């Protein structure tokens, strides 16, 4: 019996720079390159596959926000699978520049890269979103403040994906969010919520 090959994960050099392969949709198989930065962790292939299975009926035409974008793996996957637009918010200038280069090389018109801190972006943003990806740096205690600031920017029934470090103090959103799906790995948990 032939064994299946393990799925290719992101490749990172010692500097933290690397590549991630888009795993589904119109850009399947294309690679995105990212710059190294402290705390940058591209979402694993198997996790992205699960998340986008969860989102399969909701992704087409959606206006997405990717706070703490990092490598852009979630943003580019969303665009590949039919998202209407994505705003990528990344405070590290070098990482944001790499996102812009990827948008150009993939000929993506529906993405906007914003080189700002997530909190500052939310203070000045007026757009509302159907889908938000939240994967802040671990160990910084950013989740609750970010979700509280995010609420005015969510459309009714918006979906919010949360990835956070696994601990006894994992943040659980308040009653304005309905839990839909959740999974855990050895080091982190990831969940999908609907804004009510």
The biggest sheet, with number of strands, parallel, antiparallel or mixed sense and barrel status, is: 7 strands, mixed
DSSP E strands, number: 10
Strand order of the largest sheet: 6-5-4-7-8-10-9
CATH topology: Rossmann fold
Keywords: Methyltransferase, rRNA processing, S-adenosyl-L-methionine, Transferase
Catalytic activity: guanosine(966) in 16S rRNA + S-adenosyl-L-methionine = N(2)-methylguanosine(966) in 16S rRNA + S-adenosyl-L-homocysteine + H(+)
Region (Disordered): 1-20
EC number: 2.1.1.171
Question: What do you see in this structure?
Answer:
With 196 residues, this protein is α/β, with parallel strands linked by helices. It has one domain (12-195): Vaccinia Virus protein VP39 (Rossmann fold, 3-Layer(aba) Sandwich), CATH 3.40.50.150. The protein is 23% helix and 30% strand. The chain has 5 helices and 10 strands; from the N terminus they run βββαβαβαβαβαβββ. It has helices spanning 45-54, 73-80, 93-105, 118-124, 143-150, and strands spanning 11-12, 18-21, 31-34, 63-67, 85-89, 111-114, 129-134, 154-165, 177-184, 188-195. The strands form 2 sheets. The protein has a 7-stranded mixed beta sheet with strand order 6-5-4-7-8-10-9, with helices on one face. A 3-stranded antiparallel beta sheet has the order 1-2-3. It is globular and about 40 Å long. The relative contact order is 0.14. The model is unreliable at 1-10 (pLDDT under 50).
């Amino acid at each position: 019996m032939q064994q299946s090959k393990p799925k290719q994960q992101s490749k990172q050099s010692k500097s933290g720079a690397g590549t991630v392969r888009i795993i589904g949709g119109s850009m399947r198989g294309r690679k995105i390159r990212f710059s190294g930065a402290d705390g940058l962790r591209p979402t694993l292939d198997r996790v992205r596959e699960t998340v986008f299975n969860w989102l399969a009926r909701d992704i087409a035409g959606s206006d997405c926000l990717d706070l703490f974008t990092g490598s852009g793996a979630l943003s580019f996957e969303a665009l590949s699978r039919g998202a209407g637009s994505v705003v990528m918010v990344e405070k590290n200038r070098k990482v944001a520049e790499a996102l812009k280069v990827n948008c150009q090389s993939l000929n993506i018109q529906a993405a906007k890269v914003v080189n700002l801190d997530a909190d500052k972006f939310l203070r000045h943003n007026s757009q509302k979103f159907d889908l938000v990806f939240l994967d802040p740096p671990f160990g910084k205690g950013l989740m609750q403040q970010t979700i509280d600031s995010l609420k005015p920017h969510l459309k009714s029934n918006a979906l919010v994906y949360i990835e956070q470090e696994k601990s006894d103090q994992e943040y659980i959103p308040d009653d304005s969010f309905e839990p839909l799906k959740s999974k855990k790995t050895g080091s982190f948990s990831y969940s999908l919520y609907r804004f009510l």
